[in-house]
Design a protein that fits this description.
- Chain B: It catalyses: a quaternary ammonium(out) + ATP + H2O = a quaternary ammonium(in) + ADP + phosphate + H(+).
- The complex is a heterodimer of chains A (about 250) and B (about 260).
- Chain A has a single domain (about 35-245), classed as Orthogonal Bundle (MetI-like fold).
- Chain A is about 80% helix and about 0% strand.
- Chain A contains eleven helices and no strands.
- The longest helix of chain A has about 35 residues, at about 50-80.
- Chain A is globular and about 75 Å long.
- The two termini of chain A are about 30 Å apart.
- With about 260 residues, chain B is of the alpha/beta class.
- Chain B has two domains: about 30-50 and about 155-260, Rossmann fold (3-Layer(aba) Sandwich); about 80-150, no CATH class.
- Chain B has seven helices and ten strands.
- In chain B, strands 6-7-8-3-9-10 form a six-stranded mixed sheet, sandwiched between helices.
- Chain B is globular and about 60 Å long.
- Classes of the chains: A mainly alpha (about 250), B alpha/beta (about 260).
- The interface of A and B includes residues 153, 156, 169 and 246 of A.
Chain lengths: ~250, ~260
Amino acid sequence: MKPIYKRLIFFALLLGIWELGGQIGLWAEIILPPPTKVFTSLYVGITDMTLIYDLIASFRRLIIGLVIALLIGTSIGVLIAKSKTADDTIGSMLLAFQSVPSIVWLPLAIMWFGLNEQAVIFVVILGGTFVMAINVRTGIKNVHPLYIKAAQTMGSSGIDLFIRVIFPASIPHLVTGSRLAWAFAWRALIAGELLTTGPGLGYTLSYASDFGDMSLVIGVMIIIGVIGSIVDQLIFQRVEKSVARRWGL
Amino acid sequence: MFISINQLNKQFLDKDKNPSIVLKDINLQIEKGEFVSILGPSGCGKSTLLSIVAGLTEATNGEILVDGKAINKPGKDRGMVFQEAALFPWINVLENVIFPLKKEMSKKEATKQARNYLKMVQLTNYLDHYPHELSGGMQQRVAIARALAMDPEILLMDEPFGALDEQTRTRLHGQLEDIWIQTKKTVLFVTHSISESIKLSDRIIVMGTRPGTVLTDIKVDLPRPRDEHKEEMLKIEEHIMSYLKKEIDKVVSEELNHEANL
């Protein structure tokens, strides 16, 4: 059997049990509303555009935050890969920052920027920057020495060598870094939105929770999960695979 | 002399900070247009010697002069082909060959020159292929075209065919010989294959190991193509083998002693 069929049957079974369990009263609707209810609130949310606006608002923050994170992350990565002093100082700090979930910065961010858009974007930026920096550093440090030697025998050195050889050679790590940065930024975004004002997917989630609308809560959870896996599998994994193939990894 | 290597020494510090001598008192004079092989067992420092000529490795002392000028860093007058093709995987075949030309000529000229050299290695049908789409032999031909494209005086080759299968290697020997005759480059060719060195070179520098020294310098005075002179080639091979036999025995007995001391 093809994996796609296995997957379809699996999800059909899961939905069936979920729906049936609610129908025969194994659990109360407020504990776990049945899929039909969830899909109804998703349908309502999409047709009256509220979820669409949430989605647009969330993506706007994500894209702004992620782009800034990738730019800063790449710059820091290049700096710590090229300068031993920077690596010994900033580099060690990065590892410490990377092990702190970026959402813990939110209280400070709210103090600095207020309970608004900027605070969330700040958390998103922190979510993506460190992992990007670490991967860029790894990429640059691990460029095959043979590429560098070959380029040197062809008269390349300094900045020229960096732009034409070292940087392109580390693109596989750059792609991996971007993928991880996206994953961290996406999680940071939702967490940040949960604790601030709307519109946004995280905000709607906490709003629905306050009103006991569990079917909308699950609906938003589904949107978050679906978007997360679509971006990861359709964009990043594909790019990663084709890069790995061409780079001969 | 075109290339002049004088009293060259190279030593590394090993793990325990003990100096280990890789090359000892190498003296070598090479004429313009000569095809010279450097032959020796692994560990004799032949690749290090080539790397020093390329300017990629520093000598501990001694000097190398090319056309009267001392060498201390890589330069476009010396093209290098490594054992691995070392093509850049993010650009296609044509762009790889254009790489060394980019700064010194217009895009159009560079493309024309690159195409010429790719034609010389018979790869005009693969201009827009990426390195991962080519076989090992084809990649190595691109690497040769790339080294030639910047029109160096000297072509340095570090076991360029070592990783290829026998048939491909034989074919590339023929191509390299043709290219050498056409372009009249001075070639310094590092190999551990005796037959390869006899087939290709005007002169064979046989090196011994630990420390790396020049054992002998053999002139190969056979008309080309040499495959038609199998008997003479065999004689030279036996002659070289008599030198290398002692070296290989030395390595084996050293390894055995080392093991006995463990």
